[in-house]
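Hi,

Apologies if this is the wrong queue. I'm a grad student, and the batch job for Nitroreductase from Anaerobacillus isosaccharinicus produced an output file that my downstream script rejects. I'm not sure whether the problem is my script or the file. Here is the sequence I used:
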Amino acid sequence: MNVLEAIKSRRSSRSFENRQLPTEVITAIEEAIMHSPSGSNAQESHFVIVQDREQIKRMKRFAQGVSGQPAAFIVLCSNKEEALVRGGIDTLEELRFVNIGIVASFIILTAQSYGVGTCPVRSFHQSSIQQILHLPKAVAPELLITLGYSDQKPRPKSIKSTSEVISHDKFGEL
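Support response: The file is valid. Your script probably expects a header line. Output copied below for reference.
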C-alpha cells in the first residue's frame, strides 16, 4: 500500500480482534519512529511499546479514552530536559508537541500499511500512566496510540470540500 492509499483508507479503530501483532509490524513501527523527522533534530521524544496484557489492563484503568481490547499501546513521551538541552526554549515550549504529532502520523500510517488499526488517545491520566511505565520525572506521556486488528468495518469518512480547507497563494483563493 502506498502512502496516499494508507492516508485515504485509515480510520480510527476502537474495537479489536483478540490477536497479537506480528514482530514484523512492531519492527516496522520502530523503524518509522527512528526515521521520523524531529524539529531542530532535537530527538527529545521517547516511546514505550506495550504488548504485555497485564500492563495493557493496568493502563486502560487510567485511559478513559481507550475503547476495546487493543493488542498494543505505543506511548509517545516528551522529555522536557532533553527538549531544552537539545533544541532550546522553542523545543521545550512548542516544538516537542509538533515532533510528537509528526511521529504519531508515521506510526499510524505504518500500522495502516500492514492492515493494523489504530486510534490516537489523549484522554488519559498522565501521572498514572507515567507511574505505571516507570517513566522518569522529566519524561511525560503525551499521547497513546492503540493498535490491533479491527473487528468492525470502519464507518465512512466525511470530509469537507477542498475549497473549504485549501487555498492557493492567499486565503480563499482557489
